[in-house]
Input
Amino acid sequence: MTGQQKGSALPSAILLTVVIAAVWAACFWPARALRSDGVLWMSIAAICCLIPGWIVVFLSGLAIFSNELTVMLVQTMVRLMSVSVVAIVVKKTRPELGFAGFYGWLVGFYLLALLTEVWLMSRHRSSSQPSAYTSDADKGHGSE
Output
């Protein structure tokens, strides 16, 4: 593992946080309009998707896994198990909450976090692999 891979987890976690916070801010008034306590439940859903997102981002930077399939399976299990446990706990403690009250926000923030994590990982992979175009340009630049 290079220092660049190790150092890329923190900026990725910050970017994930910024994306989720921006969507949370954009959804503040709709959440408030749907329920009187909608902002609270939207905030809980956002946090419940952000924390596993941080774990997944930091796990992707560790060199403890044998292959890419193992990394993907561990990340999926962390993400799914944490969100599933929260959904079950909320269902047991607050059965009156429906899709608009909590579960819609949970699904929305889950998909947002998943999309952002995939984008961050693909961006990291593409920046860590040297491209043929860059190396050809470097060669051409040196011969002038």
Notes: Residues 3-126 form one domain. The two ends are 35 Å apart (CA to CA).
